[in-house]
Amino acid sequence: MADNNIKTRDLTADEGFKLGSFLKSWEMVLVYILIIVNIVLMAARPELYFRTGTLQSIIQSGMDVSPLVLGMVLILMLGDIDVSCASVMIFSSMCTGLAIDHGAPMFLAVLLGLIGGIFCGFINGMLVAYVG
What we know:
Layout: H1 19-24, H2 26-44, H3 46-49, H4 52-63, H5 66-77, H6 85-101, H7 106-131
Helix pairs in contact: 6-7
């Protein structure tokens, strides 16, 4: 028997890609302003931008949030939004930090942080799936 109460999503695009509307949205205007400011600063102060330390700093600042961004991109591709990813990451890192602060070995502290994150994700998933 088929369950007719199952919600299905229509992920097809209603309109095709229109370059004019893409360029006129306020979000893209902000992105363009940011790009222009960076280009002007690169031209004015090239010694600041093109250093080994600057490139290393950019890479290091993005590495800690890249798993978070990957998880959120997958959720956004499904057409949903999830604002709990950052809070679960903070809770997990807090569990790890508190375990290290209380003298736990590094392996155990990381394991406790993973267990804390998995537990929060499980509770969050159950609430989304069954409570809505």
